[in-house]
Amino acid sequence: MIKISSKNISRKESITVKFLYANAKERFKLELLSKEVGFEKEIHDQNLHRPGLALAGFFELFSHDRVQIFGNTEMKYLSQLTIAKRAEILSKLFAYNIPCVLITNNNKPYDEILEMSEKYKIPIFGSTHSTTKLSYLISDFLDDQFAPRASIHGSFVDVYGAGMLFVGNSGIGKSEVALDLVERGHRLVADDVVIFTKKGEGILMGSGTELVKHFMEIRGIGIIDVRSMFGIRAIRFQKRLEVVIELEIWDDTSEYTRTGLDDSTITILGVEIPYIKLPIIPGKNITVISEVIALNYLLKHYGYDAAKIFQNKLTTKLKAKRSEVDRVIDYFEHDFE
Amino acid sequence: MVDSCINKKKYLMIEREVEIVNNAGLHTRPAATIVKIAAKYKCEFFIHKDGMNINGKSIIGVMTLAAEKGSKIMLTFDGEDEEKAAEEIIDYFNRGFDEE
Predict the structure, then answer these.
(1) How many CB atoms lie within 10 A of CB A29?
(2) A6-37 pLDDT tens trace
(3) Measured distance between the N- and C-terminal CA atoms of chain A, rounded to whole angstroms
(4) Domains (range + CATH), chain B
């Protein structure tokens, strides 16, 4: 089974406010309200914080290292304070090392907020989204940024909608299988270096690297570009990982599943993924077998497990104690074709 | 089924950090040479940089690292002929890929 060591796994420690703004500007309709200050500040936490209690003067356990969200409640509360009181509490709040402040619902920042932003170099952003919506969007973006990633050597292809990762030793023919699948109308996600990002609890999303995209190396030819060769239908940027197939030279001592009842799995970043060890022997069409694996996976996914159905039929027959071998149909009148 | 090969293992694993010393960095030509050298040996060869652990026998993988001058990368050799492989490949890195 393939080895995934700690070296294959990475996780971003921080992102800068500049990076967040560059990515969120268009996507989440984020607008810079303050001057361009504090853009080099780092965000280390994917969680967001609404500083309601802090504004009321309670600073114990104040999660100042998180992105702060000022929603309607915070703005309404500030509106009730006198200018002097408002300046005082904001001055206390901004004295903490806050990465940035997001104001939702198209609320306009008070002059005191902008003054503090300049004084403490903390950028203020505004959005027309509601607090719930913006929190969801930014949380999802930060979750993705801070999610653990694993880089795996293999070929990742979408076969009939199932994300299949081919792994195995160098030169065994992973790229050739991927190319063959592309030729048959399936879509390449990445070849050689695939980066998997954990999404939520049980999902791994795989994609290629920015540099390599859909280039691949075929031994004897060199580097080819699948996108320009086969067109847009032959590629996709990311896909959920659903099956891992390890290709290996046929080994007499190795055991290969015969019934498909004993499901093996491989654990990547704590997520269990169905795992199939596929021996390569002359005359065996790995591409067609891969398609069959994908179709079988889809059937299982939609509730039809061929191995189990067959087992149940056998058990029923054994219970009925009718041991004679029946034809599939007993008598088909005048069917001589 | 997997454990059986671990017991047979008589070699350790070699890990070395090397620095890219030539001006152009780890570009296409040296990447191709590294892959060619690695392919001669049976041992597994991995290169680790910035949380990416790529197979040193794959040219696309090696180029993915885009290792510029001055960057440090970790080489891992694992297999029966790991010592010879490590010697030849580390030497090639230290010679700056025979470039300036």
Answers:
(1) 14
(2) 778 888 888 999 999 998 888 888 889 998 88
(3) 49
(4) 25-98 (3.30.1340.10)
d(CA A43, CA A14): 5
Q: How many CB pairs under 8 A join A and B?
A: 60
In the numeric block, the tokens 């003067």 are attached to A57
Active site residues of A: 153, 174, 192, 258
Q: What is the identity of the amino acid at A24?
A: A
Catalytic residue from among B22, B24, B25, B27: B27
Question: Which domains, from first to last, does chain A contain?
Answer: 12-145 (3.40.1390.20), 148-305 (3.40.50.300)
Catalytic residue list contains B48:
no
d(CA A240, CA A197): 10
Interface test with B, best of A153, A167, A215 (most B CBs within 10 A): A153
Which residue has tokens 């959005």? A127
What's the N-to-C CA distance of chain B in angstroms?
A: 49
Can you tell me which residue has the tokens 């058990």? A315
Strand extents, DSSP E, A110-209: 124-127, 149-159, 162-167, 187-199, 203-207
Contact B92, B34 (CB under 8 A): yes
- Six-digit token pair at A162? 């199932």
Question: Rounded to an integer, what is the distance from CA A29 to the centroid of its chain?
Answer: 23
- 3-state SS of chain B? CCHHHHHHCCCCEEEEEEECCCCCCCCHHHHHHHHHHHHHCCCEEEEEECCEEEECCCHHHHHHCCCCCCCEEEEEEECCCHHHHHHHHHHHHHCHHHCC
**Residue B51 is nearest to which of A149, A171, A212, comparing CB atoms?**
A149
Select the residue from A192, A251, A275 to test the B interface by mutation, using most B Cβ atoms within 10 A.
A192
pLDDT in tens, A136-181: 999 999 988 999 999 999 999 999 999 999 999 888 889 999 999 9
Distance from CA of A46 to the nearest CA of B (A): 20
Whose CA is closest to B73, among A192, A6, A7? A7
